[in-house]
Amino acid sequence: MGTRRNFIKTGAVAGATLLAGCSNSGDDPSPGANDGGGGGTNGNRFRVFDPLTSGATPSERHFNPWNPTQTGCWHPGAAIFDRLAVYSPTQNEAYPLMAESWEMSGDKTLEVTLSDKWTWHNGDQFVAQDWVMQQQIELAIQQASDSEEEQLIKSVEAIDDQHIRIQLTDSLSEIFAVQNTIGIYNGNLARGIFTKHDDSKWKGWHDKLVNAEGSEKQAAIEEITTTKYPMITDDPIGHGPFQISEVGDNIIVMSKYEDHPNADNINFDEFALKLFSTEKPTQPYTSGKVDAAHKGFPIEDDLKSRLPEGHTLFREGRSSNKLFSFNCGHDVDYDSPVNNVNVRKAVCHVFDRKQTTTLLQGVDRPFEWAPCRVPGKVLSNGNHEASEWVKDFTKYGENNTKRAGELLRREGYQKSNGKWMTPDGKRFKLNIMNGADRPDIQVLKQNLKDFGIETKQEQVDDATFDDRRVNGEYDIMPDGSSANGVTAMWSIGLVPDWIQSITHFKPERDVPMPIGDPEGSSGTKTINVEQHIRKWQSTGDSKFHHELMWWWNQTLPEAEMLYQPDAGAYNGSSWQLDVDSGIKNGVDDALYIAPKMSNGTIQYKG
């Protein structure tokens, strides 16, 4: 069976069985004549590893950001559609794109001015109403949900074709306002503006969501959240630097949109996303089948010799954490020793971070600082004020058994014949749910055993794991989370909502003061986590961040002990990625963003 197909021209659709049966693991010749023979490039096509290998095949994807099933809003939507502004969580900085400028006209009002240089791929002018429609649909769906979370955006309106007014529910400093509105960076809506205000489908859904009530409105929500529109194979139009050209079994080819305002910065014709049978880009990248990958680097030490000579990393400011999570016990029935904060501290003091280094394979790094909920990359760079603050914090992970013993005895634990006993005279035992394959968990178990605490390792299936962590039926479990920016790590949805829901920390707690003194020589300060985050967002005053970091260090719902850089890579011998460092090293889809910017590009250099 032949593998070359052009679905836009023929109208054929290939399902998952065709991909599995005829794609030869994604290494076939691609649609078009400029694939560089599979192992090289002639500079006409920039070939990127498609990270949706385990998701939808190219012909199945669509650009409806509200229907998560088989969506292509990220890949390739982020290349086809632009956005108003680009926010870098690692830098906490916003960069203009379609928006020329913005300002706070009041503490709850953000005014945005759009450029008039952007057009849709059919030549129509991009206008403020396009973005406003998308945001109004999102607000209507949020309002109809069962969530008790207060909406950050109260309303949006197009003043005219080039001006937008955003009303916020609460006061926000400008950077937080931009970050959460025109510069959002999480989820499908962050990838671009998908709605054209005069498109009949979007217009129909918008009218029903904004004007209808009751069952009619619910029917519209059901429809928009399940409909695959527009399909990638339906020749959709965007307004970004590339437009859909060909869709094959294992490849999506996008051609340069010559009328994009920054198209002159791009010196190649096609941007291609290639699908492979592997979920990791390592082999296709090292063998020259692709020129770049969005993520998946750095790689294990034993593979580094295979990297191309021009191997270059980007997204280097982004990372993910590997943490110990504790059941803090608030509002749950399960009685655990780690419900007590001093027991949590003791466990973290017993851990010996250095013992993990011989088990790491060049990907994970020891988190060498005190737990503080600040990315390891930020602390290692040393440019943020948090890198100074954390020097005064309690540092765990140093096998400080003396301090661990002091904390346990303070809570009534006793050691007898080398074994720790609980206050009621029973053997002190901790259950660890999952994580048997994690090197830090392996070390922790051995450290606790050597110290005289018995551990039990439990491996459960995913459904049981989710049930038990939400119900608070565990002692210790592993967790992993992105660590992609100072403010990103303290979002309302992440800490007071999600982390609280699985670690069950008390939302309001007294922490010892002053900062840096765990014995509290100045007493305590009551910190309500959500209120503290909101005060930080509304004022921009970093003292609230400082106190939140100390709350984390002294409460220990989780403790970061390892972190992993989350970089992408490209072959710098043939290609040049040129864009502001805050985007190049801080934005997850930097490969898509660079060609959009007036002061950035990807170029073939031969």
From TrEMBL:
Keyword hit for Repeat: no
Organism per entry: Haladaptatus pallidirubidus
Keyword terms: Signal, Transport
Highest taxon above the source species: Archaea
Molecular function via GO: peptide transmembrane transporter activity
Annotated Solute-binding protein family domain residues: 94-488
Region (Disordered): 25-45
InterPro entries referenced in this protein's UniProt entry, alphabetically: SBP_5 (IPR039424), SBP_5_dom (IPR000914), TAT_signal (IPR006311), TAT_signal_bac_arc (IPR019546)
Biological processes per GO annotation: peptide transport
Protein name: Solute-binding protein family 5 domain-containing protein
Family: Belongs to the bacterial solute-binding protein 5 family.
Entry-linked PROSITE patterns: PROKAR_LIPOPROTEIN (PS51257), TAT (PS51318)
SUPFAM superfamilies, per the entry: Periplasmic binding protein-like II
